[in-house]
Amino acid sequence: MSLESRIMDELKTAMKAKDEASLRTLRAIKAAILVEKTAEGATGELTEADELKLVQKLAKQRRDSLDIYVKQGREDLAATEREELAILERFLPQQLSPEALRAELQAIIAQVGAAGPADMGKVMGTASKALAGRAEGKAISETVKSLLTGQ
Asked: How confident is the model at residue 25 (pLDDT cuts 50, 70, 90)?
């Protein structure tokens, strides 16, 4: 089942349950899918990878907003972002734990033959593709950096 059809099913359920947070988030996903499908040069269809990237982008936006709201002491706005983030995470694959991420990155570093911080670009390219959807780019980057600098 494609993401779009899952969203539509959940949207109907949320409407029946009068779940405002779910409705708001699901409509945002639906709108993002529609924009992506109708963008200039688009084929009108999204691959599973494109759908995953789309949801990851929306989740990252929520995380960034959440960080800002928490720093500014705006708990009312932070609560909304937390609700939406929890709903978005239902559509993302299970995230790797820090330990599992570290183990996978060590294997990738060995695979590409990286020796130090200068090889970070090689490792990041391979790691980003291999771990797409299972780990956030920022976490991958920070872990690779610490592994390559020997910390």
From this structure: very high
